[in-house]
Amino acid sequence: MDGRDVLPGSDRAVLQAFREGDRATLTRVYRAYSPEVVRYLARRFSVRSGSGVDSVSLGALDLDAAHQETFVRAFRPAMRQAYDGVRPYLGFLLTIARSTAVDLLRASGRVAREAVRLDESSGVAQLPEAGPDPEERVLESEVRVLVRQFLDGLPEEGRALARLRFMEGLSQEVAAAQLQLTRGEVRVRERHLRTRFTEHLRARGWLEAPPVPRHATDALLVAFIALCGMGSGI
Amino acid sequence: MRWFDGHVDGLLSRWAEGTLSPRQSARLLRHAHACERCGARYERLVRASRMLERGDLHTPTAIEEGVLADAGLEAALAAAAPEVERFRWPSLALTTGMLAALCLAALVLVRPGDLGGEWQSRGVERPSGAVLRVFCAVRQQPLRELEPSQGTCPPGAMLAFAVGARAPLSHVAVAVRGGGLQGSTEGPFAILGRPGAEQPLETTVPLPQTPGQVEVVAAFGDSPRAALGALREEDTPGTVVLHLPVLIKVAP
Q: pLDDT tens across B16-48, in order?
């Protein structure tokens, strides 16, 4: 099913089940819209501040927090009732996502508290013309070189697989047909390719973390694990 | 013996392969949020994977999307449940998790200042709807949660926090004042936990190196602005402010 068909739907029973908090329906909605929320939150945001417009983006961990918090807010009983079932649900979700992103950016100090307001008109907008800052340009260049080195070091069939699957975005079935392999063979080779890429990153020292944590302590780690375990029920 | 000394390098490798189970996905991300070392590795692995598979740094890969979806589903469904149901029928796993956490520390639930600033035991339905837990972290020692009658922590230790709140409270700002500290504001943070399922704040505050006393102040509001305003003691209706004095002294 196309995710956009989950809500709103011609079937009023689906909307009713959604509003009542039916787990199966909520799971369907979540699965349908989660990828689009992730992609939306991963983009660059332009933030209006006193001196101009800053271009910021969420880090990978902030992206996790924002994605999760978006659905936590959206699925709360009051918010489910607030959805009218007429407008596209994706737009409703992305409004919540934008607000969540702003909160996280402010909380992390990435943008000034006074610079951002939660309403769309004066806060965060996605402005494609806003470019990355110099630091990010350097980082991007560094990662691009790293990937290029990896691809250059692959045998011909590995490069062909990477080109078809990653650069051209073909499905495993289509890639398998072009490479005259079975889908299972493509799946296995792709996994090996990813493993090899991780080994490449390790060998280049790319995955090494900063040596000294600023505030984190071993004890704090214990608390976080325990608390998160409580919160998620795992 | 230390209770927990594991990192998630193995899970990071499996993340890259795309072979994590939903449970492992949740564990990886929980750990990465709490561990600076693994968090940095996760961030760098994600960036490199995006560049390999998408050609830029801002387009998530299918694997990343899948892991985030797996990791966030339970929290989303938990938020959807009516509160009465959530607290009447806690899951076995949640109960187990609560018991495990109780082995680490006792829960402290604080009442707002206008109700007398008293601390009460967990599980009591509070009109304020806000819970603050404060932890004392000393390197190489197990974490200790501060109790209402014994809010003590040694000089130079770190304070860590966990909060939970009910709607409409959605944000919290924290400050540690006194004892020669500058009283800087931490947050505001979006509140991810609820009473009974508090979530840690991603911040810690170092205590002064000398004995004395400080006060932890946590202001809860229905917006970042409201939380900050309450922390500054501005007139902000609907906010809740919790206080906890912490005695800084060398442990006997």
A: 989 999 989 998 998 898 888 899 999 999 999
Q: Do A60 and B47 touch (CB under 8 A)?
A: yes
Supply the ipTM of this predicted assembly: 0.80
Residue A167 is given by DSSP the state I
B195–A contact, CB cutoff 8 A? no
Give the closest-approach CA distance of A125 to chain B in angstroms: 16
Using the beta-carbon criterion (under 8 Å), do A206 and B44 form an inter-chain contact? yes
**Which CATH architecture describes the domain B104-248?**
Distorted Sandwich (2.70)
- Which candidate, A28, A163, A227, places its Cα nearest to that of B195? A227
- Residue A54 and residue A42: Cα distance in Å, rounded? 16
CATH code, A143: 1.10.10.10
Residue position matching structure tokens 């889908």: A183
Q: What domain count does chain A have?
A: 2
Q: Give the residue, B105 or B79, on which the prediction is more confident.
A: B79
All residues of chain B having their beta carbon less than 8 Å from the beta carbon of residue A194 are 16-18
Full residue range of the structural domain in which residue A38 is found: 3-125
From CA A147, how far away is CA B53, in angstroms rounded? 10
Across the interface, which of B55, B56, B100 has its CB nearest the CB of A226? Answer: B100
Rounded to an integer, the average pLDDT of B54-66 is 93
